[in-house]
Write a structure and sequence with these properties.
Layout (H helix, E strand, L loop, with lengths): L1 H18 L6 H50 L16 E5 L11 E5 L2 E7 L9
Antiparallel strand pairs: 1-2, 2-3
Length: about 130
């Protein structure tokens, strides 16, 4: 089939060159439209998933930053007056999970309004089972 299409296209090109016609044949245009359709069918689902992936990654980053700040505050024995207010912005809330505030047992969680999966970070967080 492929050789038939190739031979047909070559014959059409030769005929156009002899008669002085210019432009693309209908077959060539259909092939281009089919290729563009296949590319669009593959790319659209990927683009639709980008926003939810970005929100999840932003929550992971906020939780990791919160855990870093909490570890620093615990190590400096400065939990008095310590808050996550500088990380809690744009519907993102960073807060402690549980009551353990030791360097080996704390856990920090980041949540966002409208996103169901919260992200946790810290040595005391329970990892989800795969």
């Amino acid at each position: 089939m492929r050789s038939f299409v190739r031979n047909y296209i070559q014959a059409e090109k030769a005929r156009r060159e002899e008669s002085g016609e210019a432009g693309f044949s209908l077959i060539e245009l259909i092939v281009v439209v089919v290729i563009l359709g296949i590319l669009a069918a593959v790319a659209i689902p990927i683009f639709l998933n980008l926003q939810s992936e970005a929100e999840t990654n932003a929550l992971k980053t906020a939780a990791a930053n919160g855990a870093t700040q909490a570890a620093s505050a615990i190590a400096q024995d400065g939990l008095t007056g310590f808050t996550f207010d500088n990380l809690s912005k744009d519907d993102v809330t960073v807060a402690w999970v549980g009551t353990d505030r030791t360097l080996d047992g704390f856990c920090v969680e980041a949540t966002k309004t409208g996103v169901t999966a919260a992200q946790q970070s810290g040595p005391g967080c329970v990892l989800p089972t795969p």
